[in-house]
Design brief:
163 residues; 4 helices; alpha+beta; globular; 7 strands; two-stranded antiparallel ribbon; five-stranded mixed β-sheet
Length: 163
């Protein structure tokens, strides 16, 4: 069964909190239409992993989804991870990869990065943020946080991967 990363606002007196949760989503089946049947998205369990950061925290994380978006008018890849710093609450964290940085690298190196290499860069950026303490510890603090992969850090992240 698929899961969905959702948020809700909980009110405690005058304080409103945005809480992220992973909830199961049953598969949907499109009715039969001619010779082609639409299959539901396969039920893939999200593998929760742990990372012991240099700042002393042990984070749990799992990759949730990737989207191609436009952020501030620039095309980017949005990679969303579900993160927990306390094993009680989970929240979404966005890592954005600027397409212009990938295009510049492809021009300079005569080839584009593969989707696996792009995913690896994002994961290295996540680990770097864990080690630096740049990942918020609560859902409230994470609401306005986005990590970036751009021209300023792409080569460093690729170097960590020996690419």
């Amino acid at each position: 069964m698929r899961t969905s990363l959702t948020s809700e606002h909980r009110h405690h007196g005058s304080v409103s909190k945005k809480i992220w949760t992973l909830t199961p989503v049953p598969p949907t089946i499109t009715p039969y239409s001619g010779a082609n049947i639409r299959m539901p998205r396969p039920a893939v369990p999200h593998r929760v992993k742990s990372y012991s950061a240099a700042n002393g925290y042990v984070y749990q994380y799992c990759f949730y989804e990737v989207n191609r978006i436009s952020e501030d008018g620039k095309p980017a890849g949005e990679f969303v991870y579900a993160i927990s710093a306390d094993r009680k609450t989970t929240f979404g964290l966005r890592i954005l990869v600027q397409k212009s940085a990938l295009d510049a690298w492809a021009t300079a190196n005569g080839r584009s990065l593969t989707s696996s290499e792009e995913y690896a860069i994002v994961k290295m950026r996540l680990f770097q943020a864990f080690d630096e303490g740049a990942v918020p510890l609560t859902a409230e603090a994470a609401e306005n946080v986005s990590l970036w992969v751009d021209e300023t850090n792409l080569e460093e992240l690729l170097g960590l991967l020996n690419i």
